[in-house]
Design goal:
Layout: H1 3-39, H2 46-60, H3 66-88, E1 92-96, H4 103-114, E2 117-120, H5 121-129, H6 133-140, H7 142-156, E3 162-165, H8 174-182, E4 184-190, H9 193-200, H10 215-232, E5 235-238, H11 244-259
Parallel strand pairs: 1-3, 1-4, 2-3, 4-5
Bound molecules: shikimate-3-phosphate.
């Protein structure tokens, strides 16, 4: 064996050890998630995550390959989160509800905590059409926009373990709800009109609220939509006076109950 072969053999042995260790580590992740499920311990623990990050910082401080190892750990942690998400959810999670009920906020928090992929329906439509929602409504009308939503939901129903933040009107069409339920759990987020107004007041991207940013209009439109939202929902979560962590925790609990 020449020198290079000998070095490569040692490298190969290192890879075997890494694989063995990673397999062990991922098994421990499964153990943690099973324990949390059985004991009713909150699944999302951002403080613990923070602690773990700090501990790692300390362990690696001054290490020769500090940056590189930190980078690898980002992948390890992200994959651990994916393992947890796979263990928890077999389906897509579709967030529905009125404009400003918190769909995007909840979606991005959940995706960060569980390394799930997220889809923001409005954003996908805007990107594909190359124009804002306001411009789509103005140029082609609402019906056209609603058809784009239906087509996108058909596409998403072919995928798994996505968190989909649906446009506020997406659940109003019967056919859309069928596509949502095809491969997903539908979570309705609710909030009082006053809360909604507070959340949407500085944003001008919603054509239906232009010139209508007041509690009466919001309350009326919510009431008109309520029956359809509720009929579509597998789970309902009120978001008033709750942190995004509390909302996500409640949602995960209810989704787990559904699949128990
Ligand atoms: C709409 C809600 C908006 C967007 C469009 C129409 C609606 O989405 O799809 O302005 O009919 O409620 P958000 O609920 O994400 O703001």
């Amino acid at each position: 064996m020449d020198k290079l072969d000998e070095i490569r053999t040692r490298l190969d042995a290192c890879d075997d050890e890494i694989i063995e260790l990673l397999t062990r580590r991922m098994g421990i992740i499964e153990e943690i998630i099973e324990y949390k499920k059985e004991s009713g311990t909150p699944i999302l623990q951002p403080k613990q995550e923070q602690k773990q990050e700090e501990a790692l910082e300390q362990k690696l401080d001054g290490q020769r390959y500090e940056e590189e190892i930190k980078d690898i750990f980002r992948y390890i942690v992200s994959n651990s989160k994916r393992i947890q998400a796979k263990n928890l959810f077999k389906h897509n999670i579709l967030l529905i509800g009125f404009m400003g009920c918190g769909k995007s906020t909840v979606s991005s928090f959940l995706c960060k905590m569980l390394a799930m992929d997220s889809v923001e329906m409005d954003a996908v439509i805007v990107e594909r059409e190359g124009m804002s929602i306001n411009d789509i409504f103005a140029k082609y009308g609402e019906e056209y926009f609603r058809n784009l939503e239906t087509n996108l939901l058909i596409e998403l129903s072919q995928k798994n373990q996505l968190v989909v933040s649906c446009g506020g009107g997406a659940a109003l069409r019967e056919i859309n709800v069928q596509h949502m339920k095809n491969n997903g759990r539908v979570v309705l987020l609710t909030a009082a009109p006053e809360t909604i107004l507070e959340r949407v007041k500085d944003n001008d991207d919603r054509p239906l609220l232009r010139g209508n940013k007041n509690v009466e209009f919001i309350g009326d439109l919510m009431e008109k939509r309520r029956a359809k939202y509720e009929a579509a929902a597998d789970i309902v979560i009120s978001t008033d006076h709750k942190s995004v962590l509390e909302i996500c925790q409640e949602m995960i609990g209810k989704l787990m109950e559904m699949d128990a």
